[in-house]
Design goal:
Strand 12 (191-192) and strand 13 (198-199) form a beta hairpin. The strands form four sheets. Strands 1, 2, 3, 4, 5, 8, 9 and 10 form an eight-stranded antiparallel sheet that branches. Strands 6-7 form a two-stranded antiparallel sheet. The protein has helices at residues 4-14, 52-60, 101-107, 112-123, 181-185, 209-213, and strands at residues 17-22, 28-33, 37-39, 42-48, 62-69, 75-76, 82-83, 87-98, 127-142, 153-160, 171-172, 191-192, 198-199, 219-220. It has six helices and 14 strands. Bound molecules: iron/sulfur cluster (2 copies). The site of one iron/sulfur cluster has 15 residues, from helix 5.
């Protein structure tokens, strides 16, 4: 499982991400923001007390964040189809709580990022700090052209603060008759022959090809 530092570093490398909250009226709102620090307790973000973002964080206590690190330039092959460079997506979702100023100041001597936060808050006293402290998430690392490895996808899920996560991917039940039909249709190299066949969840894109092709109905989603 990824460490908190690794989760933060990935988000930090991405930079600005989409931060989504319930809007309090049955909908959701998203805006661009970033995590400015991490420690054993979680991932930290700042906002201002007059923003809808602040009210929504206070009312719901919920936050979902995602972002992508990729090459902006799209290259096309001889068939005029896009060639995707290797990249990754990160997403997390969970519960937030607001920190007191005393809590933020106590972290500053040990952490440069909190030191900057204290400096900024002195200039903008309406700043408020939250920590995403109980959450789950996923690293979705793709290499569709298989430049650096022999399969397209590596997914890694994680959870912190007592939250839980479900492993990714479809699964194959004992109804499998080992006909091999699914193998040819999986461009993610996620299916392993056997009796029954099996799916490597960390490689599975949940594209559904095996689900629809299986004559025995043996390829199913995790909830089934
Ligand atoms: S297509 Fe279905 S029955 Fe055939 S090998 Fe795949 S999972 Fe098993
Ligand atoms: S859902 Fe798609 S990626 Fe996953 S095992 Fe089936 S065919 Fe492969």
């Amino acid at each position: 499982m990824l460490t908190m530092k690794e989760v933060f570093d990935r988000f930090d490398e991405i930079g600005c991400c989409s931060f989504a909250t319930p809007d309090g009226h049955g909908g959701v709102e998203a805006r661009i923001a970033h995590f400015f620090a991490y420690d054993d307790e979680g991932l930290y973000l700042r906002t201002m007390d007059v923003k809808p973002f602040y009210r929504q964080l206070k009312q719901s206590g919920r936050l979902a964040v995602n972002g992508e690190r990729t090459e902006a330039k799209v290259v096309f092959d001889e068939n005029n189809l896009p060639l995707f460079k290797p990249g990754y997506q990160m997403r997390v979702a969970g519960e937030v709580r607001e920190l007191s100023m005393a809590e933020v100041e106590a972290k500053a001597p040990h952490d440069r990022n909190f030191n900057v936060a204290v400096y900024d808050i002195a200039k903008y006293p309406e700043t408020r700090v939250f920590v995403l402290h109980r959450f789950h998430g996923e690293l979705y690392d793709y290499d569709y052209a298989m430049v650096n490895r022999d399969h397209k996808l590596h997914r890694e899920r994680f959870a912190f603060g007592g939250d839980a996560y479900e492993e990714p991917g479809l699964r194959i039940t004992d109804d499998c008759i080992a006909c091999g039909t699914c193998l040819a249709g999986c461009s993610f190299k996620a299916i392993v022959p056997g009796e029954p066949y099996a799916i490597l969840g960390e490689r599975c894109d949940e594209c559904g090809n095996c689900y629809h092709a299986c004559p025995a109905g043996a390829a199913v989603s995790k909830g089934e």
